[in-house]
């Protein structure tokens, strides 16, 4: 289909929305304003917002390729149809974060589910996604839905779907739900009843906190409180739960960044509330400079991921997700040595250094595709075999960690707890986390990890990404940037893992390169694990990408 055909489809759908939203004054106002910008009409209507293993995520606005009430209601009707075909009395629990429209979308989701005869629970306030995961089991629900766009900027929102085991849907389930959604129109066949939705009792959150407090490594009170923490929830859902855990373990020596303590749908002081990015810590560093402290810990808006930053040798230093994951593993192995047969699970884009440390401590290493849902699936399988104690620790490079299989998803709240305990332990031995990381490099070898993102927006973006992936898959075989390719793994082939659009290059001198499209945004992600300088490789990759971007 050429671009003119795509434009014609978008225009026709735009006109259909104008006709079918008559009576919705706000929708009409937005659509009429949109009509003056043909590029925006094209991007808003050229396709349907994708629904997959990460649910839906996109810019808010009117259109089939945007997050809005019509898209949310249609998707939820599809979910309801799927559930009612499979269960005699299905139930669902819903939560939401601090983003603009999150509460509205959550209530619309609840109304559609209840309108379809499904027992529906709704949290009464912003709630971490890990609490949602916990509540699915606690309330014995068949599914959970979280309204969030995680770490994306303020203009985004999303809709994550969790199965009855508490991890995001995988395998055939997303396709089966998508089939139900695609059979529906945006404007008819939507059952809706906002009455009778059950408010989640606060006992769920209290039980969640109690479980986390039980995981503490039980440092002495004075050792723990000798560390000064600056904590920021980045205007998200973590504040209440993190504070309760601090109280539960007897930790008092912390300050919260005031301008980021409470919800702010505009994310005024952190336009990109992503704990993987140093800019997200600007306000926290200002607070640290004025109030003093040892370490900054941040949770993202839905509080399933954490990040940490410090001053090291006078420089602002952000630990990567891999570095923090390695340090947590190292600390856990010291404080609670692994038992025979236990496993560490990490994604294929996690640092190889983690595997070296795990095996050195007697752990078996299990690799998964990217996405914590695959780690959750392993935990669920272990639970079904009454063997969950085999799970020791799991993490992914994008700052997601789980130190106990009490849920089947990553958790920022327990991540904050174990990070502050680890930092306090190292401080009591006269060093910070970077000092300890350098000791690990001395023992196991240096492995510098980097992640680069290349964005491709608009109707032609997906096609360009597909062409770039095809080029790396078909044309890059012997060398890249002057370095010989020792091994090439295409995860679209049989590797023992589910097939995925991921390519890995193992280079001479011990470095590794992994390329994949993002599952949630229009971008290519390129990961490198560098044992030596690979600057020529970086330049070669940029040249290839720019060539396709310019087409």
Automatic annotation (TrEMBL):
The Alpha-D-phosphohexomutase alpha/beta/alpha domain, residue ranges: 50-184, 208-311, 321-444
Pathway info: Glycolipid metabolism; diglucosyl-diacylglycerol biosynthesis; Lipid metabolism
Isomerase recorded as keyword: yes
Gene3D superfamilies listed in its UniProt record: Alpha-D-Glucose-1,6-Bisphosphate, subunit A, domain 3 (3.40.120.10), Alpha-D-phosphohexomutase, C-terminal domain (3.30.310.50)
CDD domains: PGM2 (cd05799)
GO molecular function, a single term: phosphopentomutase activity
InterPro entries: A-D-PHexomutase_a/b/a-I (IPR005844), A-D-PHexomutase_a/b/a-I/II/III (IPR016055), A-D-PHexomutase_a/b/a-II (IPR005845), A-D-PHexomutase_a/b/a-III (IPR005846), A-D-PHexomutase_C_sf (IPR036900), Alpha-D-phosphohexomutase_SF (IPR005841)
Alphabetized Pfam families for the sequence: PGM_PMM_I, PGM_PMM_II, PGM_PMM_III
Entry keyword set: Isomerase, Magnesium, Metal-binding, Phosphoprotein
Biological process per Gene Ontology, one example term: purine ribonucleoside salvage
PANTHER family noted in UniProt: PHOSPHOGLUCOMUTASE 2B-RELATED (PTHR45745:SF1), PHOSPHOMANNOMUTASE 45A (PTHR45745)
Stated family: Belongs to the phosphohexose mutase family.
Protein name per its UniProtKB record: Phosphoglucomutase
């Amino acid at each position: 289909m050429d671009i003119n055909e795509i434009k014609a489809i978008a225009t026709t759908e735009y006109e259909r929305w104008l006709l079918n939203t008559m009576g919705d004054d706000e929708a009409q106002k937005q659509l009429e304003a949109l009509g003056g910008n043909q590029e925006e009409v094209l991007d808003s209507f050229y396709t349907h917002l994708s629904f997959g293993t990460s649910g839906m995520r996109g810019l808010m606005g009117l259109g089939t390729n945007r997050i809005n009430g019509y898209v949310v209601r249609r998707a939820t009707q599809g979910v309801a149809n799927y559930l009612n075909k499979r269960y005699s009395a299905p139930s669902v629990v819903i939560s939401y974060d601090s983003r603009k429209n999150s509460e509205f979308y959550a209530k619309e989701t609840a109304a559609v589910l209840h309108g379809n005869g499904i027992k529906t629970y709704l949290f009464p306030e912003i709630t971490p996604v890990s609490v949602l995961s916990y509540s699915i089991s606690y309330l014995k629900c068949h599914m959970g839905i979280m309204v969030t766009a995680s770490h994306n900027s303020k203009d985004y929102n999303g809709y994550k779907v969790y199965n009855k085991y508490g991890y995001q849907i995988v395998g055939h389930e997303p396709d089966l739900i998508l089939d139900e959604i695609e059979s529906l129109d945006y404007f008819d066949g939507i059952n809706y009843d906002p009455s009778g939705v059950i408010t989640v009792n606060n006992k769920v959150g209290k039980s969640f906190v109690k479980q986390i407090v039980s995981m503490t490594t039980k440092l002495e009170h004075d050792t723990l409180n000798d560390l000064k923490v600056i904590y920021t929830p980045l205007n998200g859902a973590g504040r209440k739960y993190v504070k309760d855990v601090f109280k539960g373990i007897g930790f008092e020596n912390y300050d919260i960044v005031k301008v980021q303590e409470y919800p702010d749908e505009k994310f005024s002081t952190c336009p990109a509330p992503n704990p993987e990015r140093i800019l997200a810590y600007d306000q926290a560093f200002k607070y640290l400079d004025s109030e003093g402290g040892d370490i900054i810990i941040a949770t993202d808006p839905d509080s399933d991921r954490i990040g940490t930053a410090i001053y090291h040798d006078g420089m602002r230093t952000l630990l990567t997700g891999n570095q923090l994951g390695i340090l947590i593993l190292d600390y856990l192995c010291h404080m609670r040595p692994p038992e025979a047969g236990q496993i560490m699970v990490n994604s294929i884009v996690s640092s190889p250094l983690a595997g070296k440390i795990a095996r050195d401590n007697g752990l078996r290493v299990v690799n998964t595709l990217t996405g914590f849902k695959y780690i959750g699936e392993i935990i669920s399988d272990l639970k079904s075999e009454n063997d969950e104690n085999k799970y020791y620790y799991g993490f992914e490079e994008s700052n997601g960690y789980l130190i106990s299989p009490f849920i089947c998803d990553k958790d920022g709240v327990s991540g904050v707890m174990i990070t502050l305990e680890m930092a306090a332990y190292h401080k009591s031995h006269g060093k910070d986390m970077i000092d300890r990381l350098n000791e690990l490099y001395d023992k196991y070898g240096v492995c510098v990890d980097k992640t680069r993102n290349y964005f491709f927006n608009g109707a032609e973006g997906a096609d360009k990404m597909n062409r770039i992936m095809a080029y790396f898959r078909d044309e890059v075989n012997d060398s890249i940037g002057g370095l010989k390719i020792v091994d090439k793994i295409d995860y679209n082939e049989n590797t023992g893992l589910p097939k995925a659009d991921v390519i890995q290059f193992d280079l001479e001198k011990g470095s590794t390169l992994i390329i994949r499209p993002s599952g949630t945004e229009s971008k290519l992600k390129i990961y490198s694990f560098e044992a030596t300088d690979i600057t020529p490789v970086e330049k070669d990759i940029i040249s290839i990408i720019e060539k396709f971007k310019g087409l």
